[in-house]
Amino acid sequence: MLVWAVASQKGGVGKTTTVATLAGWLQQEHLRVLVIDTDPHASLTSYLGFDEEGAEYNLFDLYAAPEITRDLFLKCIAKTEHQGLDIIPAAMTLATIDRQLSGRQGVGRILSKALTLINDCYDVVLLDCPPVLGALMVNALVASTLILVPTQTEFLALKGLQGMVRTFDIMSQADPQADFDYIIVPTMFDKRTRASNHSLSYIREHYPDKVWTQCIPIDTQFRESSAQRIPLPLMAPSARGAQAYYELLTAIVEHELKRHPRSVSPALAAVLTSDVGADDATLTHHGTEIITTSVQEMCAAVREGC
Ligand SMILES: Nc1ncnc2c1ncn2[C@@H]1O[C@H](COP(=O)(O)OP(=O)(O)O)[C@@H](O)[C@H]1O
Ligand SMILES: [Mg+2]
What we know:
This protein is α/β, with parallel strands linked by helices. The protein has one domain (about 1-305): P-loop containing nucleotide triphosphate hydrolases (Rossmann fold, 3-Layer(aba) Sandwich). It contains 14 helices and 9 strands. It has helices at about 15-30, 45, 60-65, 70-75, 95-100, 110-115, 135-145, 155-175, 195-205, 220-230, 230-235, 240-260, 265-270, 295-305, and strands spanning about 1-5, 35, 80, 85-90, 125-130, 145-150, 180-185, 280-285, 290. Helix 1 (about 15-30) crosses helix 12 and helix 12 (about 240-260) crosses helix 14. The chain binds adenosine-5'-diphosphate and magnesium ion. Adenosine-5'-diphosphate binds near residues 17 and 218.
């Protein structure tokens, strides 16, 4: 089982969109995927169709328990309407977690320990983080095999990126055994604007080994997807934003195959040779067949856009 945290100390850079879209593609590939919403604002929770009161248990119940058992973990998981895609919802009460946990031993490892209890249940667990460096984000970073750092291609977001990289450095110094492997994902790229081009060049120049070679373009369909509460790959798989995330997914799987080959399930490795992201893929959603046009053509367009 792989665990991918999506984190940035800046809000509005595409974290929740990244989790929802990657999860949507994984679901389309018939993989078993669990998303955990660790942001008290619960945007991912509502993106995937839940109201705050909609689920009986949420992530707060997991953190607040004196001892986490497999039974409790499984109780906290809710099924979304998309088969194979499960969620542990967030709740506003998570905002108090730093106070609740203060003085507890091993406070940064609660989630990573808990995840070992369900190691056999999912191919991928995706963690959506709050934009605040507190217990929730630390737990997510420590639990992950890989961290994705969405970075909006605009000047202010670069500060968020610098803050995040500094956090990785500080955490690595505090725990030399910790291995914070991360990939910077440039998001909301608009090739027509100077600010976008300038920011992308800056990221590539300063973090050459850490930045994904492509980028996620600006695509208004993401707003529509969250308004409709359907991940974009299920709503409009051929949208250029969805296609860019498919390219990202394959890059991540390749990366994980090198870094954590034993944790990559054969089903996940099959993404690299899958038909879903290939030429004229046929996808279904709610029984409606959606024929995408040449996905490879679109991927080429995305690359060109960057
Ligand atoms: N590539 C994109 N193109 C256009 N809009 C986007 C894109 N990615 C995200 N958005 C929109 O930007 C807003 C912030 O994104 P979100 O994923 O919620 O950020 P975060 O979780 O980092 O706060 C949302 O309205 C979302 O629909
Ligand atoms: Mg968010």
